[in-house]
Structures are given as structure tokens and as C-alpha cells.
Amino acid sequence: MKNRSLMNLFLALPRPLARGAYALARATVLRDARLEIFDTVFGRCAKDGTTGDYLEFGVYRGTSFVAAHGASKRHGLGHLRMFAFDSFGGLPNSEGVFNEGDFVSDEDLFRRIVDKAGVPSERVHVVRGLYDDTCNPQTKQKHGLERAAVIHVDCDLYTSTKVVLDFCEELLQPGTVLMFDDWYAFGDDSEEMGEAKAFDEWPLKDCFDVLYDRPADQCKGFVMTRPADGVRAAAADVSSNG
Ligand SMILES: C[S@@+](CC[C@H](N)C(=O)[O-])C[C@H]1O[C@@H](n2cnc3c(N)ncnc32)[C@H](O)[C@@H]1O
To answer: pTM of this prediction?
Structure first.
């Protein structure tokens, strides 16, 4: 919701009305193409019986977070914990079309929006800070993070995505869905920049198959189909055999 007076009006509405208004706006005038993608993602988790947490890296004002909540509920997964990782300070550096400081938000605004849009507060776990400071074993221990059902990478930048993917390695299981929101954000250079470049350099990329590929919406998503141990062992084998 970009328009500030529209946002203030929404935040002033009583909760049930706000939830209805938000859902209506997202289905019509402020339609978010990602609604369908979230249905694909949580539909896949439901079909595979994948459980664990929903982790979103880059939540800004909560648009995709709310969409994820709605889709998870529609597929019987409304009990999964939802983690919001963000500094709320905007992008920490520039890359291609993205500029340092884009998407500055604030945690309180994020919490108010997702609350008014109908995400129960007990589902919402905010991990605030730069990924360099929060993507560490202490955060995993503090929140009991052990398994991810869905990892949503929406932090745009190569450097941020590198840190996120390393952090998530221990949380993967066959069935984990890995979503990239800005895979095609850099036009013809997309494979050499941003989220796509970080994924390409990630040792565990071969554990995943493509789940959806939507250049028109800039998104690409994968599902883990092979356990990490097998891929690591194969890589070690190749290097020891020269
Ligand atoms: C494009 S916005 C997220 C949009 C949101 N998912 C939505 O659909 O409305 C990108 C977010 O990533 C966050 N971000 C990017 N790199 C980060 C980093 N290294 N540490 C913490 N937050 C980061 C920014 O603060 C920003 O809120």
C-alpha cells in the first residue's frame, strides 16, 4: 500500500473491517500476482506433508507476508510459525536497479499492517537486524529453528541472499520450498546478479528442482527433492577424484 492516506485509513479501521478491506483490495485494485504463487507453494507443502516454519527474508510492509498467511491457511497450514527477517532499514547497499536505502520501513508499522490484515500475532516472529548480525546459530537456538517448510527470499541483493542461503542450510529438508521474489529483476543480466547469482554459487542448489518459473512476475521457486548429504558427498567425491 503505497498511498499514505490510504494506509492511514486502513490502519484506523476496526480489525474485521480492515481484514475484509485488505483482502478485497489485494484481489482487485491492488492485485498481487504473487497470491497465485503462494497457493502453488503451500499447495505443494500440503500435498507433500511438509511441515516446519515459514521464513521470509525481506518483509518491508508485509504484503507478501500477509499473502503467505492467507495461502497457508487455505491449504490447512495456518499453524506454521511465520518468521520475518528484516532490518527495516531498507537495502544495505546498491546493486543494479536497487539503491541503498530502498524499502525503508519500520517494525511497528509492519506489525500493525499484518495484524490489521488478519495475521494472528502468535504466528508472527520478527527477527530484526541486518542478516550479517541475525543469521547466526544464536537466532536458531533462541527461536528453536530446526526445519523450514518455506523460505521466501525477497531481499533483492546478491550479498544479502548469500548470507540467507548459508543460514538456511541446516533448516532444509526434502520438500522445503525456496522462493525467490526478484530472480529476474536485472533484465538480461539477471543470471549474473542478485538472488540468481547467489543461488548459482550455493553448493546445495543441486538438491532442488524448479517448482515455478515466472519471468513476467520476476519470480522463480524451487523445491528440495534430494537430501543435502547426498549432494555434499557427490561434490566431495568429484573433488577427491580430481
Ligand atoms: C523488496 S523489500 C521486501 C518486500 C516484501 N517482501 C513485500 O512483498 O512487500 C526488501 C527488504 O529486504 C530488506 N533487506 C535486504 N537486505 C537486508 C539485509 N542484509 N539485512 C536485513 N534486511 C535486509 C530490506 O530492509 C527491505 O525491507
So the answer is: 0.95
